[in-house]
Amino acid sequence: MTAAPDSAQKFDASRAGEYEQQSRIALAGYDACHDLSACMLAAALGSGRAARVLVAGAGGGAREVVTTAALEPSWHFTAVDPSEPMLALARARLEESGLDARTEVVLGTVGDLPDGETFDAATLIGVLHHLPGDEAKRAILRDIARRLRPGAPLVLAGNHQPYASQPLLLAAWGERWRQQGAGPDEVEAKRARILQGADPPHSEQAVADLLRESGFAPPLRFFSSLFWGAWIARRSPSAT
């Protein structure tokens, strides 16, 4: 679930090793979000048909691929991530699940893919809030839009709202870690880390604006957990 090269630097080998466990604590409903994302794509495309799916930011276990492939055995995937340690973890999970034959794994960004490639659907989960500034966010969304057929669905998920702007949600996020056994010092360290380490869109409307500016129709939210949201949006026919 990592993003552009500069942002990917923080996803080194040590962070990759703890990613799967840490993500399930930081995001209450981690597995439910991925399960519903697969269901939304299947509902949007129609189950039982063949499809090619672009998974942007697939590192950290390729959960998007594993979950969706179990639901749709005729789908094939292109999994892209700029972090070698995170992508290595994704490769391992794909091999364990027997999905390596159905998945092309690419070290790099969506922009590195050939412009001529066209996908029936895409996911961008846990990436956008790691990209600094709106232009970087628009850039990856535009790169995805250019590789989707008109009307193709995108599942976008990540944190939105500045963390410090919602002190109650931030406090509840800390309690989530305490609930999982973290002591006071560890909770404070993790709270400091989230405040310094990401740049989420400032609101749900900001998410919708970024999508519109990048070639997508208005999104539909289907999941929420504290700062996290998940939406589905279709590529606009007029997107270029």
UniProtKB/TrEMBL annotation:
Q: Which GO terms describe its molecular function?
A: methyltransferase activity
List residues of the Methyltransferase domain: 53-151
Bilayer-spanning residue ranges: none
Keywords linked to the UniProt accession: Methyltransferase, S-adenosyl-L-methionine, Transferase
| Gene Ontology terms: biological process | methylation
Recorded hits in InterPro entries, A to Z, give: Methyltransf_25 (IPR041698), SAM-dependent_MTases_sf (IPR029063)
**In its UniProt entry, what is this protein called?**
SAM-dependent methyltransferase
- What organism is recorded for this protein? Methylobacterium variabile
